[in-house]
Structures are given as structure tokens and as C-alpha cells.
């Protein structure tokens, strides 16, 4: 268990962010939005947050911290991944407060469906979090949303088959063990192209005009590497849970996933459970670092809310230290706040450490600009073509160019 003195210290320090959230109109972008003593807030969260009682606990705590409000709560199930599309349909009718995956940020800003953080809250977010997490909720220099967990993937492995040293290089693992990877999943597959010097929308992922730079000789080399190892069976596609099932029955030794699968992987591997940041990979004789997309899940308020001030305050409250600590203890949601990541219990969490190491060392910030909408489907289709072996070592160069041309189609 976490030392009680540490909890007291964490909760005390969290009062700063909660206190900032309680500030007056000058701290809410766009004025008071017509709030009154009687406040009604519609909140969207994933089902798991409601089933575990996390959101209900935070609502009660917010009421206690804000006796000036008499709040009527309405909680609706909308996952972080579905928020963007749901909000865009009718921003004015959307939730007052919602959780979202940061890859939707550009679209939410373009739809005027997300509120800019108050200056004081933005400063606290910058102080509490690593720069990568701050960048994940930044659009054109402005902060939208309070990050509450990192969002990336890393490696799980069976340590009876793969040593800690082996886990540092993918080629070594493919020679000694059975490796399963979501080749036809467009969130995962670019890791190989980033490893060999590719980029997406410029070095920072913010330049839509730069397009996808996954082609040429460097891109063809990656595609050839993937096609060869799919053909020889050293790299198998992880689809529809096959990788996790393989861990359980012993037919797979390595998979790539995130913290959401930690409990299932523990059950599958038992005492042989291990996790780590992404390995290096040798492509064309050069050892390079695989890099995953990394971002965050964050809390935001709707600028169209009739109770904008209260909504902005509650969004900040849900991203505060005490709320993040509750989220971790009640649901295993790994926090972003640096002091919580240094907490003894979190540091002992194998998956939490692997996520933190990945974000810090083996990831790139996932682009959030609207051009990303052109990326997902063509990349998934290209991955499927690799799995189906219609992309081969012989046609790798042409197939790679065809894919990149689709990504850069105007």
C-alpha cells in the first residue's frame, strides 16, 4: 500500500491545482458562460470510470470543494476514443466536461468544441507534467485539456523465453522466440518507419504541408524487412486478441500493447510477466530505435456550456493529483503528474514503468493536426496487404510509394 504520509503530501500539493480551478471569472476563458448557484453538468466518461465509481467519487469531492454550487450531475458513457466524433456532431449539445484522446485535439479545436485552459491552470499543467504531455494538449501555442494519463504502447514478454538483454533488440527476439505484432494496425505499424529515419508532418508532427516522409529507399527497406519476416514466420500479426491468447497458451512470447492489457498479460504469464520500452531493430544492417506514437488522454470542458466556469473548474479538478491518484488506485490508470510517477507503488508497477520509459525514450508525439484523418485508413490497408503477403520483398519499393502517395494525396 502507499504510505499514508505520502498520500497526505500528494493531496496537499494537489490543492494548488484544485484551488486554481476554483478561481473566479478571470480564470475562465470566455467569461462566466451564464453559470448560477444551481448548476447542471453533463459529464462523459468511459464505462469503466462509472462502473468503478471513480467519476462519482470525484463529483462528490468537487461538491465539497465548491459549496457555492448546487450541482445536478448527469453522467453518460462515451469513451475517450469516441469523444471527438460525438462532440463534432453538435458541439452545443455535447457534454459540459469530457475525457478525450489527444489525437482528436485538432478536430476539436477546429470545431470550437474544446475550451482553452485558464492561464493559471495551464501553468500548473506545465509544472506538473513532462514536456511531452504538455505538448500533447497544445495547439498553436495554447493548452486545451488537462492530461491525466499517457497514451502509448510498449512491449510485454515472457521472461522465461526472453531475457532482459534479449528484450533490447527485436531481431534477437525474433530469432529466439515467437513475436506477435499488430502489423495491420495503423497506430503501431509506423514504429518501423520512424526507426529507419521516417517522419510524419515534419520533425514535430505539426506541419501538414510536409506530409508523410516514409518513402524512398529508407521506406522501401522497412517494407522489405517486414515482408521478409512475415514470410518466414518470425513476425506474426496480432489481430483480434491472438497475441494475448498466444501468451496464455505458450505459442507467443512477445506482444506489443499498453497498460489497458496489463492485468490480462499478468494472468497469461504469471511469474514470467515482464514489460519494457520498445526495442531496437536492425534494418538493412543498421540498428535503429523503434518509436511508438505517444500522446495523452485528457479532461476538457465545452466552451458552449451554459455553466462554463463550473465546467472549466471541474475539468481541472479531474486532472488534479488527488483525482489521478484515485484513478490509479481504483482503475490502474497510470498518472502523468511527475510526483505521482515517482510514487513507490507506481514505480513498482511493471507496466507503468514501461509506459513511462517508452514515452520518455522510445516514442514520438502523435500528430494531432487535421491532416491525420488522411493517415489511418491507407496505413491500415497497407498493413493488411503486408499480412496477406500481397506486398512482397520484390515489390516492396513500389508498394511503399503507392502507400505514401495515398497519405500525401491532397
From TrEMBL:
GO BP term, pick one: maltodextrin transmembrane transport
Keyword Flavoprotein carried by entry: no
Domain of life: Bacteria
GO molecular function: maltose binding
Matches recorded under InterPro entries: SBP
Signal peptide: 1-21
Keywords for this protein: Signal, Transport
An annotated GO cellular component: ATP-binding cassette (ABC) transporter complex, substrate-binding subunit-containing
Record flagged with keyword Transport: yes
Pfam families listed in its UniProt record: SBP_bac_8
PANTHER family: MALTOSE-BINDING PERIPLASMIC PROTEIN, MALTOSE_MALTODEXTRIN-BINDING PERIPLASMIC PROTEIN
Family that this chain belongs to: Belongs to the bacterial solute-binding protein 1 family.
Name the record gives this protein: Extracellular solute-binding protein
Amino acid at each position: 500500500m502507499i504510505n499514508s504520509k505520502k498520500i497526505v503530501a500528494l493531496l496537499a500539493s494537489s490543492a494548488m491545482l484544485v484551488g486554481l480551478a476554483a478561481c473566479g471569472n478571470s480564470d475562465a476563458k470566455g467569461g462566466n458562460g451564464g453559470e448560477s448557484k444551481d448548476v447542471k453538468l453533463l459529464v462523459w466518461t468511459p464505462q469503466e470510470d462509472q462502473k468503478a465509481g471513480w467519476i462519482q467519487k470525484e463529483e462528490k469531492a468537487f461538491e465539497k470543494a465548491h459549496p457555492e454550487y448546487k450541482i445536478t450531475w448527469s453522467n453518460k458513457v462515451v469513451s475517450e476514443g469516441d469523444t471527438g466524433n460525438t462532440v463534432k456532431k453538435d458541439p452545443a449539445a455535447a457534454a459540459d466536461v469530457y475525457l478525450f484522446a489527444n489525437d482528436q485535439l485538432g478536430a476539436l479545436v477546429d470545431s470550437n468544441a474544446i475550451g482553452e485552459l485558464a492561464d493559471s491552470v495551464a501553468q500548473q499543467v506545465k509544472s506538473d507534467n513532462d514536456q511531452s504531455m504538455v505538448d500533447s494538449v497544445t495547439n498553436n501555442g495554447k493548452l486545451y485539456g488537462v492530461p491525466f494519463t499517457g497514451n502509448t504502447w510498449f512491449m510485454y514478454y515472457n521472461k522465461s523465453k526472453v531475457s532482459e538483454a534479449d528484450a533490447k533488440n527485436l531481431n534477437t527476439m525474433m530469432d529466439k522466440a515467437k513475436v506477435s505484432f499488430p502489423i495491420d494496425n495503423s497506430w503501431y505499424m509506423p514504429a518501423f518507419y520512424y526507426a529507419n529515419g521516417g517522419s510524419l508532418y515534419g520533425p514535430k508532427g505539426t506541419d501538414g504541408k510536409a506530409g508523410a516522409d516514409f518513402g524512398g529507399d529508407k521506406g522501401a527497406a522497412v517494407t522489405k524487412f517486414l515482408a521478409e519476416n512475415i514470410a518466414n514466420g518470425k513476425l506474426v500479426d496480432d489481430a483480434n486478441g491472438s497475441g494475448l491468447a498466444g501468451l496464455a497458451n505458450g505459442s507467443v512470447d512477445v506482444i506489443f500493447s499498453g497498460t489497458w492489457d496489463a492485468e490480462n498479460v499478468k494472468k497469461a504469464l504469471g511469474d514470467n510477466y515482464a514489460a519494457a520500452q520498445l526495442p531496437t531493430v536492425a534494418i538493412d544492417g543498421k540498428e535503429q530505435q523503434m518509436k511508438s506514437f505517444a500522446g495523452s488522454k485528457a479532461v476538457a470542458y465545452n466552451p458552449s456550456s451554459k455553466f462554463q466556469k463550473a465546467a472549466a473548474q471541474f475539468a481541472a479538478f479531474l486532472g488534479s493529483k488527488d483525482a489521478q491518484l484515485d484513478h490509479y488506485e481504483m482503475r490502474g490508470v497510470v498518472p502523468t503528474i511527475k510526483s505521482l510517477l515517482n510514487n513507490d507503488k507506481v514505480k513498482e508497477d511493471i507496466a507503468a514503468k514501461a509506459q513511462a520509459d517508452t514515452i520518455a525514450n522510445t516514442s514520438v508525439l502523435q500528430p494531432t493536426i487535421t491532416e491525420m484523418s488522411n493517415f489511418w485508413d491507407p496505413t491500415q490497408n497497407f498493413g493488411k496487404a503486408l499480412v496477406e503477403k500481397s506486398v512482397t520483398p520484390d515489390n516492396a519499393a513500389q508498394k511503399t510509394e503507392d502507400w505514401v502517395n495515398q497519405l500525401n494525396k491532397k
